[in-house]
Amino acid sequence: MQKRYLLAPGPTQIPPEVLLKMAEPMIHHRNPVFETVVEKVRTGLKFLFGTRNEVLIFASSGTGAMEGAVTNMLSPGDKAIVVRSGKFGERWAEICGAYGVVSINIDLPWGDKLDPSAIAEALEANPDAKAVYTQATETSTGTIFPTREIAQIVRNYPGTLMVVDGITGVGVLPLPMDEWGIDILIGGSQKALMLPPGLAFAGVSDKAWEMNKSSKIPKFYFNWAKERENLKKNQTNFTPAISLITGLRESLRILKEEGLENVYRRSDMLARATREGVVAIGLEIFSKNPSPAVTAICAPEGIDGQAIYKTLWKKYGVTGAGGQDFLKGRIFRLATLGYADKYDVITAVAAIEFTLNDLGYSFPLGAGVAAAVNCLKDL
Amino acid sequence: MQKRYLLAPGPTQIPPEVLLKMAEPMIHHRNPVFETVVEKVRTGLKFLFGTRNEVLIFASSGTGAMEGAVTNMLSPGDKAIVVRSGKFGERWAEICGAYGVVSINIDLPWGDKLDPSAIAEALEANPDAKAVYTQATETSTGTIFPTREIAQIVRNYPGTLMVVDGITGVGVLPLPMDEWGIDILIGGSQKALMLPPGLAFAGVSDKAWEMNKSSKIPKFYFNWAKERENLKKNQTNFTPAISLITGLRESLRILKEEGLENVYRRSDMLARATREGVVAIGLEIFSKNPSPAVTAICAPEGIDGQAIYKTLWKKYGVTGAGGQDFLKGRIFRLATLGYADKYDVITAVAAIEFTLNDLGYSFPLGAGVAAAVNCLKDL
After folding, report:
1. B217 plus B264 within the same structural domain
2. Where would a tag sit more exposed on chain B, N or C end, judged by fewer CB atoms within 10 A?
3. How close A14 gets to chain B, by Cα (Å)?
4. Are residues B116 and B159 located together in one domain of the fold?
5. Is there a contact between B220 and A61 if contact means CB atoms under 8 Å apart?
6. Nearest-CA distance from B156 to chain A in Å?
7. Does ipTM top 0.95?
């Protein structure tokens, strides 16, 4: 017997009531029953994204909405500023490149703390940049970026959009779009929304809709203006991922019931306990500004990070994630977003202890879980 | 108490064992357990599509794969021949238009029988057309197109691809790609594959992969070459719709167990019985070459087709579909694809009888189901 614990930075665990909801017999999307579901989901997403504007829903993974945030706003030859400090920052630059947008890359070493002044300088040098593309938290390094401060800077540029990939940010930490001045906020279903992958979201500000009018990059499946038109009638442009949207209604209900402040506090405390747990056994945190969504932990000297990830998964039942790209072997990651509670963190830290003990790392066995328990006593 | 019967041309009913499979706890996609699922699914899809080439899997609705069949093959300014004889033929032309492809439209009146010679003539007049875009069955009119014959014609043009939207065709009628010379065959999860919407498929021939090399339309999320590269390692380019792919493995198993010939015969017989049932009560079939996937039935003189569709749905528990576009009010549709059996057809015909009786149409009540039962006795 081996029980399985999914603590990866997406997909994440799904509450049983959401799984059951999605297992109900299929309903048709062009009828009032489904339209009622969409209506509830629209309200819930506006609440979660902190906006009075529509939050678009796509049948795609998060990257589809990231692509749309380029193709629906810019035109070939436009300039955009991209924060490139991890796998997903690189993705912004790749999308820009694919569509003929010139990306001005702010290349910050992976895991470093982003100083908002870097954005201010890039904008001063490129006041004609049409957008700043960034992450709320960079999943590949477990780093949080100062979204609020960046948005404040971008606000001064009437011709520049503040675009945030919040795929591992929405539902993990506050990102109130309207209050902070985020123009586009992207989300994905398989993270804090506690659903299977297959849905992407995009909150879109008035400023962004204005820019959309003059965008000349071709689009069809991800045509945001048509999507909004349909959404206002509780419909989607093409056949929606019905079962996932049905589950989303339930997930949003659960998040609302807990209260966003409590949800954010929970993720923050769980990530903190994860960090304190592993630090107590002598490990180091990779990020200089760690995220509440996912913790990137450095493999100790002489031990392969992939061996840790694989032993955790195979022998000890805990699915985390390894490092990506040049971080492969150097770090392993454990997430604390979505349907994760204090026992998940204690389980994860215990599994790390078992794993490192197996791999010949020397440390006081039990010190990690003790630190985690101490940290979690008030949650 | 009202039991619900979903007999729309997508989404369709989902077998309970598939629903339960998708309700299992989430698993991570970057690990061997999921890779085994993908490997099985690849084999199953090749079998279903009748090809030794890979069948690509996308997290999107079917339209996403239709878009990809344009953006991954052609370049702006290229010519393409489009059979436009319904809502989905129009979609091909719209996608071409969005990406700067010049569509030469064969405008056949909706529901008419397509003569393959129309394609031959269009190709003679436009031998430089890079593709012929067509449907296996046009869902909006319930019409079957002569895919095999068209493919035979297109085969003579080494620089022209035969692209078939088989979203309501795959798993309903034979479309063996390699044998018939279909270059791209598109499928969707929510039809004969008996899954929720959210997955699209594309079988791609060697000829199409050759053309892909010189395609200049930009793409990122739907980059087929990258998708193939990943698929060969049992992975996907971006986070896949894990729960749907897990369900797909089960659906493919069910289809294989029944045997494709039996699956095709079942759809054919069910559609035939639907037609005979409604003809027996004096109704007319809209299509001049009716499809085994979906039957478009003309509303009798003086009765609104939308009223029939709505009464069927609301009062009699049967979800069909209304007419689209200018056919709204003139027809209503009932599908016989996927997880549909003879009792579904008898139920549907009975519900039509109850509905028409309510709406004041005069006919021998019971004649429809009697005709259907007679037609279905050998299935």
Report:
1. no
2. N
3. 7
4. yes
5. no
6. 31
7. yes
